[in-house]
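[Q] Does anyone have a clean structure-token version of this?
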Amino acid sequence: MGTKIKICGLKRVEDIKIVNKIRPDYIGFVFAPSKRQISIENAKQLKALLHPSIKTVGVFVNEHIEKILQCEQQGIIDTVQLHGDGDLVYIKELKKASHLSIIKAFRIKDAKSLEEQRALIESPLLDDILLDAYSPEAYGGLGRSFDWRLVDQIQRPYFLAGGIGIENIDEALSHHPYAIDVSSKVETDGVKDEEKIRQLVERVRADDKR
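[A] Here you go.
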């Protein structure tokens, strides 16, 4: 099946042209406040230019369900990635109201934090999980790695995020994630870099052929 690839934080027409050439499996539109935040209107325009084989993930932090549903109804996103404090009650409500698959993001600080979140991590209500580094000042997107040895305790497929780039992709792949999620490490001066994306995708695809 091979490791899936998600390129997150696309904002420009140029970004869409890059991924249309290189064809990762997923791209992410960040609707949460951040330097990569995109408006619904802009995301809709970019989605119309995106190759149909690439799935679109909407990234939200503690968002009202109505905004997520608006993105779904306008055909902007195929999947929702939830960061923040959303619990199973929130997730059940979202599943009932939408047809989106749900990725829940978890911030991993250490073995204790992993255990504290294990019940939710293992919940069958979640279609997928994403494991990222913990930071007290943000819910994600900091481009920081954590101790990836901890993920070997996870018994379900997961997206691995946090500071993944060409310099550490081999280590990331050695933990056999379902998918890798990259953003800052495939940028130059805050802008998506075609050559960095190409190198990373080619490296992952080459690993799949082993």
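[Q] Thanks! Anything notable?
[A] The chain has seven helices and ten strands.
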